Amino acid sequence: MKVVGILHGKGGVGKSTVAVNLARNLQLHGLDVVIIDCDAQGTSQSWKASRDDETDLPAVFGVDKASALESDVRRLSDSFDIAVIDGGAHLDKMHAAIIKTSDLTLIPVQPSPADIWPTEQIVDLIKQRQEVTGEPDAAFVISRRKVGSRLGQGVQDVLERFELPVWEGTCDRVAYPQAMGRGRSVVEMSDEKAAAEVESITENVINTLNHE
Ligand SMILES: Nc1ncnc2c1ncn2[C@@H]1O[C@H](COP(=O)(O)OP(=O)(O)OP(=O)(O)O)[C@@H](O)[C@H]1O
Ligand SMILES: [Mg+2]
User: How are the residues of the chain apportioned to helix, strand and coil, as percentages rounded to the nearest 5?
Assistant: First the structure.
């Protein structure tokens, strides 16, 4: 089983939005997917419970203790092709555990230095781990970029300093909260631009995991 960890030290940056959209789309690509929800708010569980038809969505598995994550992942690994971890905010031990168990870590950031600076500790942890084991891969995923806007020079400068790949990610679109409230991925709804964004994230994930 491959593991994709989605994490950031701040709340409200788009972790759960990326997690559920990615997980559901990976499932639509034919993979057996489990979402591991490390957030006490249980957003992924609420997302799944909001589905109003009989569609078989990815399994959601809650983990609240960092010390349990590794063994839980190992236990799930025979049953699924891929796990998407929705990491909560402000969970230092959990972040270390997610980085340790992930093949790929994604850091959603809104295109503002105020969202990017606080990721320094996470990026350091990822790089330390990479030096020892060569893993996990990592990328920033831009979240909620204003439609039609480009990343400002200030944002690009800060991102460059962290020396990680930067994926285009999501624009600010009503389709995302709408899909969340209906237990869907935007790829199942009518906003084709939102769907293309999630498809691009999904293809980046698949390509990165396959290159290993
Ligand atoms: N691309 C987007 N377009 C519009 N709204 C978005 C987008 N991405 C996220 N949001 C909205 O922003 C809010 C925060 O997103 P989300 O819940 O995914 O963040 P989070 O990092 O998981 O937050 P928390 O740390 O509280 O779990 C939600 O209301 C969500 O619907
Ligand atoms: Mg969340």
Answer: 50, 15, 35
What phi and psi values does residue 105 have, to the nearest 5 degrees?
-115, 135
pLDDT greater than 70 at residue 95: yes
Count of domains forming the chain: 1
- Nearest-atom index, ligand 1, CA of 173: 3
Q: What is the residue range of 185's domain?
A: 2-210
Give dist(CA 94, CA 88) in Å, integer: 8
Ligand 1 binding pocket mutation candidate from 176, 178, 184 (most atoms within 8 A of CB): 176
105: domain CATH number is: 3.40.50.300
Is the distance from the beta carbon of residue 15 to the nearest atom of ligand 1 less than 6 Å? Answer: yes
pTM listed for this prediction: 0.97
For ligand 1, whether the C-beta of 85 sits within 6 Å is no
Question: Ligand nearest 170 Cα, by number?
Answer: 1
Confidence label for 88 from pLDDT (cuts 50, 70 and 90): confident
Nearest CA, atom 29, ligand 1: 177
